Amino acid sequence: MWEMVIGLETHVELSTKTKIFCSCTTQFGGEPNTHCCPVCTGQPGSLPLLNKEVVRYGVKAGLALGCHINLVSKMDRKHYVYPDMPKAYQISQFDIPLCEHGKVELENGTTIRVNRIHIEEDAGKLIHEGSTYLVDYNRCGVPLIEIVTAPDFRSVEDVLLYLEKLQGIMRTIGVSDCRMQEGSLRCDVNMSVRPKGSDKFGTRTEIKNLNSFTAIENAINYEFERQVDILESGGQVEQETLHFNSDTGETVSMRDKENANDYRYFREPDVVTVRVSKEEYDELLASLPELPDQRMRRYVENLGLTETDAKLLVKYRRVAEFFEAAADIDAKTAAAFILTNIFKSVPTEVEREEWQIKVSPENFRELVKLTSSGKINRNIAKRVLDRMLETGSAPAEIIDKEKLGGVDEAEFEAICRKAIEENPAAVADYKGGKEKAFQALIGYVMRLTRGAANPAQTEAKLKELLNEEA
Amino acid sequence: MVNISYYKKLLDTKALSCTELTKAFLDSAEKENPSLNAYISITKEEALKTAAEVDEKIARGESLQPLEGIPVIIKDNICTKGIRTTCASKMLENYVPFYDATVWEHIKAQNSVLIGKGNMDEFAMGSTSETSYFGIVKNPHNPEYVAGGSSGGVAAAVAGKLAAYGIGTDTGGSIRQPASFCGIYGLKPTYGSVSRYGIVAYASSFDQAGVLASCAEDTALVFDVISKYDERDMRSVGFKKSTYESLSGSVKGLKIGIATEDLMASDEFVNSAVENTINVFKSMGAEVEEIKIPFIKECLPVYYILACAEASSNLGRFDGIRYGYHVEDYEDLNDMISRTRSEGFGDEVKRRIIFGTYVLSSGYFDAYYKKAQRLRESIIKEIDKIFKSCDIVLAPTVPVAPLKAGANISPVDLYRTDICTCAANIVGLPSISVPAGFTDDNMPVGIQLIGGRFKEDVILNAAYAFEKETGGEYIKLSEMGCGV
After folding, report:
1. Are A271 and B234 a contacting pair at CB < 8 A?
2. What is the pLDDT of residues A336-382, one digit of tens each?
3. A233 and A111 part of one domain
4. B78 touches chain A (CB under 8 A)
């Protein structure tokens, strides 16, 4: 009888080489405070210099989410005091964001409206060590886009589908690796509850800075229960900002409405107006790659893959590209190799996203070709693929070296004859109409050829020999 | 006349070595500074090192750059790598920057000899150099008077011959007003002419570094060195030509606007200096016409609202965490930051931070900040229009005669003395204060020549012409300083 209403603010770290206002590297990790300079540590007198690449990445993200791009926008200062923010203000965009009015279609049919996307700088990291605080400014000034949706989510499922989709899109257009565990995708959840069927919004709370799918799911579920409990016991939900403690699984108050931040936004006087030329806009639009959704539909409609398989393939841009290296030969075989064999060797999200496997697209294509043409059977192909994953060698080389290359014609016939001679019972059963008994004969041939024989060819040969006998 | 070319000649003719010249300035600075208080730091080691390099160059028979070997004072809100930069605040009492401001890079590249860092109002907030944590700057011509502010230390050092020229900053009059009080030249360039990179920001959309010097030629010479485009300041434009080369001394046909109604001084000596200057220009063939300056009454509140708003934001970074003053014991983060700021900042700085925070806070933003921002746009439009028919606007630099130290003027009354200077900062126009008269107490009085955007050459040439015509009789250098 209660319904959750959720809007998301998602922070995505952009993978530009340098920071948004200085030339320090954006690389994750590094000894604390080594990716820093006067600008990103807010030294007195330093000035920001806007990295044009950040604007281009922001525009790409906007185009991929179907946004209107504001060719003229501006930067503003957003003030708050915290040790991880060395200037005591964040350079962000307030009333004129780079992108507005986009949308994301979820596979369950829900449409999520994207209100705006703006560019801004990330803060550093505060580390508690006993009673002292330490600050690492390496992340300070790493470019972010903040993607703000309308309150269009009605379930945890919606939220998770949206985030997965967002990850896929951002990775495909190459603006971010969206690694939640490294903090390059983080979420603020704005949430209220209301009786199902109501069209009014309840009082919302904001859960800050969630950085894993599990945390998001648990935080939403906990907060939903909490708000419903309050309302059912006749209370009122307080408008406040919450922090989710993943150890206890509870949301705790950070600040209430009275102590809400007054960000005192005003135009950043140190950064000139942000302009995107029409030419640049056209160029970015034209260079936008096929998005995961379009790609998925193409795989289903043109290549005959199942939707499930297609979705798994398009989730990671590099995987999809790898697949396409062999898809024209035999899409189903290529998909099966990737999803069942290769994925087993790269089990984590990060590994799949990075796709640093030893098999080159050319070798993969070769393997699919050999399999599809019947030169080697599937069992052999899988063994070859496993060796390719270990060594990076070409399939032909492995087949040669390990003598996996089929069986020669005369030997094959001899083995088939032997199968019939040695298994009189099975032959009798088969002749007596028990089709199943025939499988035992095939299995026998496979055993003797150590799997190198082609099952279809084996079946044909055996039948041919049995007919001869008759 | 004692100016850059005079010292240059001493070096060129080998009448003095650069080390001897430097020592003479260091000696006077060390002798006079305890009472004058123009310098926060005297950079003896740095100075002698540079001087030795210059002497080697002279020994090798190499020709010197325009400012090579010339003693200079730099205002203490300009970052100098490895040299303490305090902004005259307890907050930065021991702050040593690890990078150079662009303007200092240009001066350094010239091998100009840094005698020291100039005292000033704390974070450049003030008009008398009395808000300095390091004590009041005295006027070199009479210790009962202030040197003006906020670049008071630089003005006092140049007028007191404790440096040959100086670099200051001007947000609402902070170069021109002390230049006027000390009897020297002070140029605030067009916003964008000189890079702001490495200058501790007070009000980012107004701040501009400029020159304090003892003659118009020197001012042009130094301006040419520092006015280069800098990609590290997104608002930097740079100045494309040499103002020094374009000093012709002719003002024939120059159109000078005066706004007797809008920009009148309350002091008779200031008004007579203005009148006299007008007459001199007329006698040289300039055309003088009466103009109206729209919104002049709004300039002061617009300036203070916007400048304080930006200041409240710019000074937020002083939290005691990465640099600067911080309290030793505290209860928590919040306590540490708030007490650091309470103890580290002086009253005037706190007053402007609180005022600026107020005009930006929700509920007041529209009534103050937004309205002031809109008015600023109108003022810019209207004042730019004036320069379609005028080459220069002539006005008092300060509406009052030099102020006495400890006069105990209320903050708002003191703000009012910025009325003539702040318009140039609001619009971003170049303006120079020119020595033009004296009070009955023999204190200097300056007048101001405001030019169109990037017309530094025009106002410098007018200042130069006036100086030639009057034989430099209003320039006032104290005998206290270097007597070489």
Report:
1. yes
2. 999 999 999 998 888 888 899 999 999 999 999 988 887 787 888 88
3. yes
4. yes
Last residue of one domain, picked from the residues A348, A366, A401: A401
Q: Could you confirm whether B228 is annotated as catalytic?
A: no
B384 close to B304: Cβ distance less than 8 angstroms: no
Q: For chain B, which ranges sit under pLDDT 50? A: none
- Chain A residue at shortest CA distance from B364: A264
Q: Are A374 and A310 in the same domain?
A: yes
Place of tokens 């560019």: A119
What is residue B111's three-state secondary structure? coil
A321's tokens: 């590209």
Q: What are phi and psi of A250, to 5 degrees?
A: -120, 155
CB within 8 Å: A44 and B313 = no
Q: What ipTM was reported for this prediction?
A: 0.95
Q: Which of B78, B101, B369 lies at the smallest CB-CB distance from A266?
A: B369
Per-residue burial over A89-119, b = 16 or more CB atoms within 10 Å of its CB, e = otherwise = bbbbbbebbbbbebebebeeebebebbbbbb
In angstroms, the CA B212 to CA B180 distance is 10
In a shared domain, residues A24 and A116: yes
Is A261 at the interface with chain B, CB within 8 A? no
b/e per residue, A263-280, with b = 16+ CB within 10 A?
Answer: bbbbbbbbbeebebeeee
Residue A135 is inside which H or E element, if any? Answer: strand A132-136
- Tell how strand A240-245 and strand A205-210 pair up: parallel
Please indicate, yes or no, whether residues A81 and A177 belong to a single structural domain of this protein: yes
CA distance A177 to A350: 9
Say whether residue B76 is in contact with chain A using an 8 A CB cutoff: no
| Domain CATH code at residue A437 | 1.10.10.410
Verdict on whether the full-model pTM lies above 0.90: no
CA distance linking residue A22 with residue A43, whole number of Å: 13
Instruction: State the residue for tokens 């580290």.
Output: B344
Q: Tens digits of per-residue pLDDT, A186-195?
A: 999 999 999 9
Residue A407 above 70 pLDDT? no
